[in-house]
Design brief:
Blueprint: E1 2-3, E2 17-20, H1 31-44, E3 48-52, H2 82-97, E4 101-105, H3 112-131, E5 136-139, H4 160-169, H5 174-213, E6 218-219, H6 228-231, E7 241-243, H7 254-265, E8 271-273, H8 287-300, E9 305-306, H9 329-334, H10 337-350, E10 359-363, E11 371-375, E12 382-386, E13 407-409, E14 414-416, E15 425-428
Parallel strand pairs: 2-3, 2-9, 3-4, 4-5, 5-6, 7-8
Antiparallel strand pairs: 1-10, 10-11, 11-12, 12-15, 13-14, 13-15
Helix pairs in contact: 3-5, 7-8, 8-10
Domain Apiosidase-like catalytic: 15-315
Protein name: Apiosidase-like catalytic domain-containing protein
InterPro entries: Apiosidase-like_cat_dom (IPR025277)
C-alpha cells in the first residue's frame, strides 16, 4: 500500500536523532559523567538529548533522586530553585558545546496537580527566561494524561518502586471488595471524566502561554494510544503531531501504521514518535528491534527519531526503578546500538531523506513487515528497508552496473557491496 507523504518538520525543528536521559540533571549523574556521555553520543552521530528540567517521571518532588546536587527544581511552596536552574543551564550548554540540541521537558502530566496551572505557567516562564537563548526545543509535558485521578500517588517523596511494594498491602478482603466494586466504578467514572477535562483544559492553558512566550518549537509527549492532537485542544500550536508507542512487542505494527494515520488525519503536519521501545527495558527490545524501529519509523515518514535505553533514561544502578529492568547506566552506555543508529542516521540524511513530500510503500503481508520503501518526491531515488534479508525479495542488479554502495547493513553500520546472508539490509537506489 502507498502512504501519503509527510511534511517535514518546520524551520527550527531539525531531523534530529535523540537519546533519552530523563534523570540527566539529577545528582544520579555527576558533571564528569554527564560530559562523558554527551561526548559519546555526539561522536556516535546523535544530534539531540531529551531531558527533564524539573521533576523526572516515576518519583515525587521530595525524592532525592529527583534533585540535583543543588537541591530540587522547585521547593514545596512552589518557589523555583535558582541554583538548580543555573545548574540546568550549565549542563545544556555542555550539550550544545558538542553539537547536541536539548529537548527540554518541564513537567510530567500528573505534576500539573502538584504545581497548579498558575504554577506550571510560572515554571515554564522561568525555563524560557533561562534557556531560550540556547539550542533547545521545548516539550510541554511528558505523558500529559498520565495518572488522572491518582496524581498524589508519589507525594511527597515516593517512587514507583514504592508503589509496587505498597500495592499488595492495600488490597481489601475479597468479599468486601466485591460488594464495593459497583459503587466505586460509578463514582470513579464520573470523577475521572471531570478530572480528565480539567487536566486537558489546564495543559491547554499552559501550552497557550508557553507558545506565546517563545519562537522555539514546542512539542507534547502523550500516553500510548493517543496523539498529541487527541490530548490537547490547542494542538495546532505544537510543531509536530507526536505519539508514544511504548514498550510492548504488540506495538510493532504501530511503528509504520501511526505515521500513515497521522498523515491522513492531519495533512501537512510533521510526525514524531517521542517514545518507541527502550533497549533493554523489561529485558527486551535488543539491537535488532532498535534498528527495526529506526528504519521503519523514518521510512514511514517520521520527521525525527528518539532512541532510549533502560539504565540510560533513569541513570540506573540496577536497583533504582528496577521493576522496569535491572540494566544499569554503565551497561546501557556500552551497548553498540547507539553507534549503529548514528551510522544509519548519517546514511539516511546523505540519501536525501526525510523528504516532506516523499511517498512510502509498505509490504506487510500477513501482518509481518517484509519491506518498507520511502521514495523521494522528485523521483530521484528511494530507500528500502528489509528486516530479514533471508526472506527479502531484492530486485535484480541492473546489467553492467556496479552494486558497490547500493546496500547498507544496519547491524554492521557499513555500506556493503552485496547483501549479507542474514539480518536486515537497506537498499539505496
Amino acid at each position: 500500500m502507498s502512504l501519503p507523504g509527510m511534511v517535514a518538520a518546520p524551520e527550527g525543528v531539525p531531523c534530529f536523532l535523540a537519546d533519552t536521559w530523563w534523570f540527566a540533571l539529577t545528582s544520579r549523574l555527576s558533571d564528569d559523567r554527564f560530559a562523558e556521555l554527551a561526548g559519546l553520543r555526539a561522536a556516535q552521530g546523535f544530534s539531540a538529548v531529551q531531558l527533564v528540567v524539573g521533576i523526572p517521571p516515576e518519583v515525587g518532588p521530595g525524592n532525592a533522586n529527583a534533585w540535583s546536587s543543588h537541591g530540587p527544581p522547585w521547593f514545596a511552596d512552589g518557589r523555583p530553585n535558582t541554583h538548580y536552574l543555573d545548574h540546568a543551564r550549565r549542563r545544556i550548554e555542555r550539550l550544545n558545546a558538542v553539537g547536541l540540541t536539548a529537548v527540554v521537558y518541564g513537567c510530567w502530566g500528573h505534576q500539573l496537580a502538584w504545581l497548579g496551572v498558575p504554577g506550571a505557567i510560572a515554571w515554564w516562564a522561568r525555563l524560557v527566561d533561562r534557556l531560550d537563548d540556547l539550542d533547545v526545543l521545548y516539550c510541554l509535558s511528558g505523558e500529559t494524561n498520565l495518572w488522572i485521578g491518582a496524581e498524589d500517588a508519589l507525594l511527597p517523596d515516593r517512587s514507583t518502586d514504592d508503589l509496587r511494594l505498597s500495592a499488595a498491602r492495600a488490597r481489601l478482603p475479597g468479599r468486601l471488595k466485591g460488594v464495593l466494586r459497583p459503587l466505586r466504578a460509578r463514582y470513579v467514572r464520573h470523577r475521572h471524566a471531570a478530572a480528565a477535562r480539567a487536566r486537558r483544559e489546564g495543559w491547554d492553558e499552559v501550552l497557550g502561554t508557553l507558545a506565546a512566550s517563545t519562537d522555539r518549537p514546542v512539542l507534547a509527549h502523550v500516553i500510548p494510544g493517543e496523539t498529541s492532537a487527541d490530548a490537547l485542544d490547542r494542538a495546532g500550536l505544537l510543531a509536530a503531531v507526536t505519539v508514544q508507542t511504548g514498550h510492548d512487542q504488540a506495538s510493532r505494527p504501530l511503528l509504520w501504521e501511526w505515521p500513515a494515520r497521522i498523515a491522513q488525519r492531519f495533512p501537512g503536519r510533521p510526525f514524531i514518535n517521542l517514545e518507541p521501545w527502550y533497549e533493554g527495558i523489561r529485558d527486551d527490545f535488543g539491537p535488532t528491534d532498535q534498528l527495526f524501529a529506526y528504519w521503519v519509523s523514518m521510512l514511514a515518514g517520521a520527521a525525527a527519531y528518539c532512541y532510549g535505553a533502560h539504565g540510560m533514561w533513569n541513570a540506573g544502578d540496577g536497583a533504582f526503578l528496577a521493576h522496569w529492568g535491572k540494566q544499569s547506566l554503565d551497561t546501557a552506555a556500552a551497548l553498540p546500538t547507539a553507534g549503529l543508529l548514528g551510522a544509519s542516521h548519517r546514511v539516511l540524511l546523505r540519501h536525501g531523506l526525510p523528504d516532506a513530500r516523499g511517498v512510502t510503500t509498505v509490504d506487510a503481508s500477513g501482518g509481518t513487515l517484509r519491506s518498507i520503501t520511502r521514495a523521494r518526491a522528485d523521483g530521484s531515488g528511494a530507500v528500502t528497508f528489509y528486516p530479514d534479508v533471508a526472506v527479502a525479495d531484492l530486485p535484480a542488479r541492473p546489467a553492467g552496473r556496479d552494486a558497490g554502495g547500493r546496500y547498507f547493513a544496519p547491524d554492521q553500520g557499513e555500506l556493503v557491496a552485496q547483501p549479507p546472508g542474514e539480518g536486515p539490509i537497506v537498499l539505496l537506489t
